[in-house]
Design a protein that fits this description.
Blueprint: H1 17-46, H2 57-82, H3 86-115, E1 117-122, E2 127-132, H4 141-146, E3 151-156, H5 168-176, E4 184-187, E5 191-196, H6 203-232, H7 240-270
Antiparallel strand pairs: 1-2, 1-5, 2-3, 3-4
Helix pairs in contact: 1-6, 1-7, 2-3, 2-7, 3-6, 6-7
Length: 271
């Protein structure tokens, strides 16, 4: 039995079934991300202080450009399907998938940087951030003590102002050392706190990983669907209008994912 309204519109809604379904699904997605953004606002307003300058803004900006470009290419794919230019439609669809994979790859690099970036507190109360030699992941003070590690080689970050920007003195020192920071030995017995930039570190990173992680899963899910349409679609020439509808529905989801990131980027990276 053939499923009705996969191509032609329903009389009651004026839309085919898949478009009705995707709008209902997107409504639930708005409620999901709306709740998370609301939680962010409440936590941010209630915090005594909020960290700045902990994320790589140039990389985040480039990733924003990648995702916006993918929204353009998915529209171009749909337009070429309407014109029955199947070759170009597949090219634009492939570019969209590549943009999604590039976005996820860049985001995974950002995640790795946070897993190897540490904040420590010394016995005298001084707090510094930086990298441990070898860039180990997920180290904790308890693990160092268990492993009977006596010292760690630690390279401190340049000093920053209240907005997270490097001070003039730090920039001058970095330039003098050609961008390389000196590793110094620190006794584990002198440390009272050590944590990577992970959710357990502070509220900011708990929000960061929750929001960007959930968004990344949406990007991955969208890429899987688009890959299925590109590689396993058997109706490109047999039933092109149905394929066009599938791309349109996937494109609506993709635009939503793009829109969420446009809100995430300034909220997490800039404000």
């Amino acid at each position: 039995m053939e499923i009705p309204y996969t191509v032609e519109a329903r009389r009651d809604t004026g839309l085919y079934n898949a478009k009705v379904g995707i709008w209902l699904f997107l409504a639930s997605e708005v409620m999901l991300f709306g709740a998370l953004f609301s939680s962010y606002v409440l936590l941010r307003v209630g915090a005594d202080s909020w960290p700045h300058g902990l994320l790589n803004i140039p990389i985040g900006t480039f990733n924003t450009f990648v995702l916006i470009s993918s929204s353009v290419t998915i529209v171009m794919c749909w337009a070429n399907l309407k014109l029955r230019r199947f070759g170009w439609a597949k090219v634009y669809l492939a570019i969209t998938i590549l943009c999604a994979l590039a976005f996820l790859g860049i985001k995974s690099k950002e995640y790795n940087d946070k897993f190897t970036h540490y904040a420590i507190r010394l016995a005298d109360g001084k707090e510094i951030t930086g990298h441990i030699k070898g860039d180990p992941r997920f180290l904790s003070l308890k693990k160092l003590i268990t492993q009977k590690t006596e010292t760690i080689e630690f390279a401190a970050d340049p000093e920053k102002d209240a907005r997270g920007h490097e001070t003039k003195e730090a920039k001058a020192e970095e330039k003098a050392h050609h961008g390389e920071h000196e590793f110094k030995a620190l006794k584990v017995s002198d440390l009272t706190y050590l944590s990577a930039y992970v959710p357990s570190h502070n509220t900011y990173f708990a929000i960061y990983f929750t929001l960007t992680g959930l968004h990344g899963l949406h990007v991955l899910g969208g890429a899987v669907v688009l890959s299925y349409i590109l590689l396993f679609g058997k109706m490109w020439r047999e039933n092109p209008e149905r394929v066009t509808n599938r791309v349109e529905v996937a494109g609506l989801f993709w635009h939503f994912v793009d829109l969420v990131w446009i809100f995430l980027f300034p909220v997490l990276y800039l404000l």
